[in-house]
């Protein structure tokens, strides 16, 4: 076609650094993948059976736009039990198609053209894209390994302008594995209150935290009223393919998100909602088993990378290590590409995750212990050679 029919907003979106890399990976044999951010566990059997029972019972139609009442009530009880935050399941919760949709709904409902959203980086690759797709402007605040990738409150406050409307945070963090200190989050809460900002908090990895409790941002004093809390089932319960997430927050914001949700999605998959209900009611034992195994792998990969000479701070959450690779003389894209081609190990260049990620690579330990051991042997061979 002679004419470019794409909108400028769409044409200007950069390609995902993760998906672009996996296009190369798809047809390569004998690859040790430390790249994909997906549990290698199969969804626990009781959860699968709950989904099957729902289908066999003939529950193949739409649910309420907000999600089933039973799931929202169980979810409200779950969040209250874990974090002491009480949500009205009828007005302050919506079940979504994964956290990806929940984030898209939040940005679309909140932003007018030109509104600014402060985004700490490195961060998940869709954060800036969702802001841009909603007509907003992402304002990136890099963090540093020397500070354990903690968000810098002074940098956040310095970035605030009259157009700033929201702050988008994600802890435990993908790609760094950082867990925000309560003291830092309290300072962010003060800033949000002082400048009347909405905080969109992506807490999809909330139950995959090691050695310390997770701090739910909405549980901080006064923050429930200005926080959109995002969560889901993909990571904690190994349910990535079921596509169930949620948002909880002030009734006025949830109503706006629902207004968008009803036009683009209708409702999250019915059988998947039944499976998610089972996960909440009876799935905590399986979560503990998976978390313990991730913790075992975490210690292996962090110690291994440090011994190879790739400095890696200790991740406290999620299932990612984020080693610095600048000592090799390669940038992160060259390192990832050559490691894949020469040794068949897949990692993700840190620059795919925004400012602050350059010079690092993301290594997922959501893969078998033995594969991580072999991956480390190959990385050591590669680093030794170059």
Task: Please outline what is shown here.
By secondary structure, the protein is of the alpha/beta class.
Report what the structure shows.
The chain is of the alpha/beta class. It folds into two domains: 8-43 and 285-385, Aspartate Aminotransferase, domain 1, CATH 3.90.1150.10; 45-283, 3-Layer(aba) Sandwich (Aspartate Aminotransferase, domain 2). 42% of the residues lie in helices and 13% in strands. The chain has helices spanning 8-11, 17-25, 45-56, 69-83, 98-110, 126-133, 153-159, 182-194, 251-264, 270-282, 284-308, 332-343, 369-385, and strands at residues 32-33, 93-96, 116-121, 137-142, 164-170, 198-202, 227-232, 245-248, 320-321, 345-346, 348-349, 361-364. The strands form three sheets. Strands 2-8-7-6-5-3-4 form a seven-stranded mixed beta sheet, with helices on both faces. It has a three-stranded antiparallel beta sheet with strand order 9-12-11. α4 runs parallel beside α10 (270-282).
């Amino acid at each position: 076609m002679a004419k470019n029919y794409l909108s400028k907003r769409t044409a200007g979106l950069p390609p995902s650094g993760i998906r672009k890399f996996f296009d190369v990976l798809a047809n390569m044999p004998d690859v040790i993948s430390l790249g994909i951010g997906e549990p290698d566990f199969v969804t626990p059997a009781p959860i699968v059976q709950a989904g099957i029972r729902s289908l066999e019972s003939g529950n193949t139609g739409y649910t309420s736009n907000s999600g089933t009442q039973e799931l929202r009530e169980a979810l409200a009880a779950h969040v209250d039990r874990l974090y002491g935050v009480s949500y009205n399941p009828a007005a302050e919760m919506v079940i979504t198609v994964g956290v990806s949709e929940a984030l898209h709904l939040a940005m679309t409902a909140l932003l007018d053209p030109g509104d600014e959203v402060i985004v700490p980086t490195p961060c998940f690759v869709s954060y800036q894209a969702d802001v841009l797709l909603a007509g907003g402007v992402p304002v990136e605040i890099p963090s540093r390994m020397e500070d354990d990738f903690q968000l810098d409150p002074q940098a956040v406050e310095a970035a605030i302008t009259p157009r700033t409307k929201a702050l988008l945070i994600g802890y435990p963090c993908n790609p760094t594995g950082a867990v925000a200190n309560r003291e830092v989050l309290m300072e962010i809460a003060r800033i949000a209150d002082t400048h009347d900002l909405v905080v969109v908090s992506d807490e999809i990895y909330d139950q995959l935290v090691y050695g310390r409790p997770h701090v739910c941002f909405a549980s901080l004093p006064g923050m429930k009223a200005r926080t959109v809390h995002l969560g889901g089932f993909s990571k904690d319960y190994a349910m990535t393919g079921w596509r169930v997430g949620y948002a909880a927050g002030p009734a006025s914001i949830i109503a706006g998100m629902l207004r968008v949700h009803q036009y683009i999605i209708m409702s999250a998959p019915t059988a998947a909602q039944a499976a998610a209900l089972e996960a909440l009611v009876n799935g905590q034992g399986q979560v503990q088993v998976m978390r313990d195994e991730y913790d075992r792998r975490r210690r292996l990969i962090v110690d291994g990378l440090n011994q190879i000479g790739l400095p890696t701070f200790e991740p406290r959450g999620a299932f990612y290590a984020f080693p610095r690779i600048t000592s090799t003389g390669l940038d992160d894209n060259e390192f990832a590409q050559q490691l894949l081609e020469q040794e068949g190990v897949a990692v993700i260049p840190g620059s795919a995750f925004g400012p602050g990620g350059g010079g690092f690579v993301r290594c997922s330990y959501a893969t078998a212990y033995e594969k991580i051991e072999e991956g480390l042997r190959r990385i050591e061979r590669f680093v030794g050679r170059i």
